[in-house]
DNA sequence: ATTATCTATAGATCTATAGATAATGC
DNA sequence: ATTATCTATAGATCTATAGATAATGC
């Protein structure tokens, strides 16, 4: 077990001022969960280090024992949000025996599931204006790789092979835009069941890609 | 002429500390333009009253002569962003001799044009987390009316008339989500010509609505 | 002894008001 | 006299560090 791992029984160090039921998470993960909730609901700039720390159950200053500040929390949350989608995309790209249409549909469905499925609306992090900053280049890199997987799958469809480059880029952007736009729809109506929604979005994405004439 | 209107020649009041070329805008409009730029690029919470005022060419305190604070600027910008789309939507709803398919396409195209066409990426305001606050209920009301226009047009199409209510709502949300998602695409590639992009988005929207099997 | 936490706080903001000032208008 | 602006600033933050403290571990 890592020294910062989830708490077993007795814990070293001064006790927290506000004792609360154990979450089973490490202190760092408690901070990440608190930041996810606050960043997605109030925004990044509007969230203070105090708010994050107290929601995680500790005092403001204690946060600095685990992270260097808000930026680090956002950077880590962002990357953790793309990584699962990217893993899925790589597997689908490798599975080249299956029809590209099916794989594209599956990628869309899975991606929407990840973006909208979590406890907090993690996909909402993509929409924060601060995300464009240079500081988050790591996130942009993995996101670009994911987008390229979309492009490759669209190009591998029967209709996609015939597209000129500019046309392929446009379709890719529209599909990708739909997937990201879904975050806004989910935000405005969070109670809709995610799985049916994800499938409907995947259907819509294939229509945009020009693959389906249902 | 209103007393706060665009400056003709001589101006009453103490001169500004930093004299700059005339913009032709009233001081209030200069503030709105500055706020639009900063809110869309840096975000609302991250933008200080000082930054807005100085970009508008005046000192921080002078801003309060025209607006009560940042909130008022955001509220006004938000409403000004939907209003043109809503006007267009009302006209299209009234023109009931034309096929609903054509009118829906036109609404999508026009809406994308407004969202992405301005000097600053005004559509980006929709993405700010702060926009959900109660304070901006006025914006949400007009936005809801616009969304309802989309719903009515989709329902009026040949295929739309047969949809169950739940299915109609889902299609409406997906189309609306695509239009809003386009803001993100535009943000990531602002150099793409807006008019061609708007038409491609309208095509995609009709496919999602189930209207087109091209 | 080590560790996780705490309390306290310096320094850096940021907002919104008070009151002064430099133009034009009458 | 009226107006648009300015300068100055009080009060309220917010961040990040310094140093104290209360646990466990040896």
Task: Please describe the structure with a list of short key phrases separated by commas or semicolons.
Tetracycline Repressor, domain 2, 0% strand, DNA-binding, homodimer, Arc Repressor Mutant, subunit A, 58% helix, 7 helices
Tell me what the structure shows:
Two copies of one chain form a homodimer. Chain A is an all-alpha fold and 214 residues long. Chain A has two domains: 15-76, Arc Repressor Mutant, subunit A; 81-208, Tetracycline Repressor, domain 2 (Orthogonal Bundle). Chain A is 58% helix and 0% strand. Chain A contains seven helices and no strands. Chain A is elongated and about 65 Å long. The A-B interface holds A 40-46, 124, 126-130, 132, 170, 173-174, 176-182, 184-185, 187-189, 197, 200-201, 204, 207-208, 210, 213-214 and B 40-46, 124, 126-130, 132, 170, 173-174, 176-182, 184-185, 187-189, 197, 200-201, 204, 207-208, 210, 213-214. Chain A binds a DNA duplex (26 and 26 nucleotides) through residues 3, 10-17, 27, 48-50, 58-62, 64-65, 69-70.
Describe how the helices and strands are arranged:
2 copies of one chain form a homodimer.
Chain A: H1 27-42, H2 49-55, H3 70-94, H4 100-117, H5 137-155, H6 165-188, H7 194-208
Chain A binds a DNA duplex (26 and 26 nucleotides) through residues 3, 10-17, 27, 48-50, 58-62, 64-65, 69-70.
């Amino acid at each position: 077990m890592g020294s910062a791992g989830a708490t077993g029984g007795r814990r070293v160090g001064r006790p927290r001022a506000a004792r609360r039921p154990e979450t089973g998470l490490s202190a760092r993960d408690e901070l990440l969960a608190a930041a996810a909730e606050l960043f997605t609901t109030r925004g990044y700039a509007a969230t203070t280090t105090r708010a994050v720390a107290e929601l995680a159950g500790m005092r403001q200053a204690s946060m600095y024992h685990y992270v260097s500040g808000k930026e680090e929390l956002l950077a880590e949350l962002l990357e953790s949000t793309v990584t699962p989608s990217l893993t899925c995309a790589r597997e689908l790209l490798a599975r080249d025996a299956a029809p590209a249409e099916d794989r594209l549909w599956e990628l869309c469905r899975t991606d929407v599931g990840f973006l909208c499925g979590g406890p907090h609306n993690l996909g909402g992090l993509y929409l924060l204006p601060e995300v464009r900053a240079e500081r988050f280049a790591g996130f942009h890199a993995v996101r670009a790789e994911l987008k390229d997987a979309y492009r490759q799958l669209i190009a591998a469809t029967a209709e996609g092979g015939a597209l000129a480059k500019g046309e392929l880029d446009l379709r890719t952007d529209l599909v990708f835009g739909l997937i990201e736009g879904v975050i806004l729809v989910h935000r405005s109506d969070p109670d809709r069941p995610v799985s049916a929604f994800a499938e409907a979005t995947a259907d819509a994405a294939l229509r945009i890609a020009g693959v389906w004439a249902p």
